[in-house]
Amino acid sequence: MPYSATKYMIHHMKSAEDDHVDVAPSSMPPPRRRSPTRTQLPEEVAAYVRDLIVSGTTRPGEFLRLEPIAEAMGVSQTPVREALLALKSEGLVNLLPRRGFVVAPITPQDISDLFWAQAQLAGELAARAAEKITDEQIAQLTTNVKQYATAVKSGDWEIIPELGLEFHRDVNRAAQSSRLMLVLDAVMANLPNRYYAAGNPKQTGAEHPELLRALKEHDPERARRLMTDHISAQGSRLIDILAERGLWGDVEE
């Protein structure tokens, strides 16, 4: 059965050896693939599975079977295994001998730490952008903010995440700090790529214009504070969402 962005399935299978649930992580659409090379395939699969784990779509203790993931991504099992081994090195996945890959425990503090690190780096980039941003870059961000507002109003959930990410990419480029951007990219690699779709577009729609005003006024400290608060609030919202889904119910009990 082919997978697509609008039609996908979850396999639930009870193992005779334990009470864990095996999940084919296909309740989130696979990322759009753009003719990836052989070396890029494991990275794309890792990004897909990382999204599922950090967003709470797959739960700690659930097994990640190679075949369903390969089917969801339209790839062979080899890049899936490479991707899961990479996620094991990140601490998101454990490998149990003779049993396979399993989602490792993740705590609210883990997510809070990731967003804290992102907030500090993004805040510094925003401050630098406020000092160096050009009129052309301000015009691009102004267009983005208008498009975002239109997308939220019309409920265009396909484009909202892309517009949100593009806003931040444009701000980061304006900072002209390539090394710092590389560090931020390393932190961002551990965050769910499609979090904007699961977050609160209304709040983002209000916070991005405020950031744009600080950039227009070339106010670095205000831009830093707004960006840091913006990213930190996203992390808090994600933690609340996962708590509502019962991700940490067992821990709390």
Give a brief rundown of this model.
This is DNA-binding GntR family transcriptional regulator. The protein has helices spanning 40-54, 66-73, 77-90, 108-132, 135-154, 160-174, 178-188, 195-198, 201-216, 220-244, 249-252; strands at 12-14, 21-23, 63-64, 93-96, 100-103.
Helix and strand arrangement:
Layout: E1 12-14, E2 21-23, H1 40-54, E3 63-64, H2 66-73, H3 77-90, E4 93-96, E5 100-103, H4 108-132, H5 135-154, H6 160-174, H7 178-188, H8 195-198, H9 201-216, H10 220-244, H11 249-252
Helix pairs in contact: 1-3, 2-3, 4-6, 4-7, 4-10, 5-6, 5-9, 9-10
CATH class of the largest domain: Mainly Alpha
CATH architecture of the largest domain: Up-down Bundle
Strand order of the largest sheet: 1-2-3-5-4
Helix content: 55-70%
Please report the total strand number as a whole number.
5
Q: Which structural class best describes the helix and strand composition?
A: alpha+beta
- How many domain units? 2
Rg over C-alpha atoms, rounded to the nearest angstrom:
19 Å
- The DSSP helix count reads 11
CATH topology description of the largest domain? Four Helix Bundle (Hemerythrin (Met), subunit A)
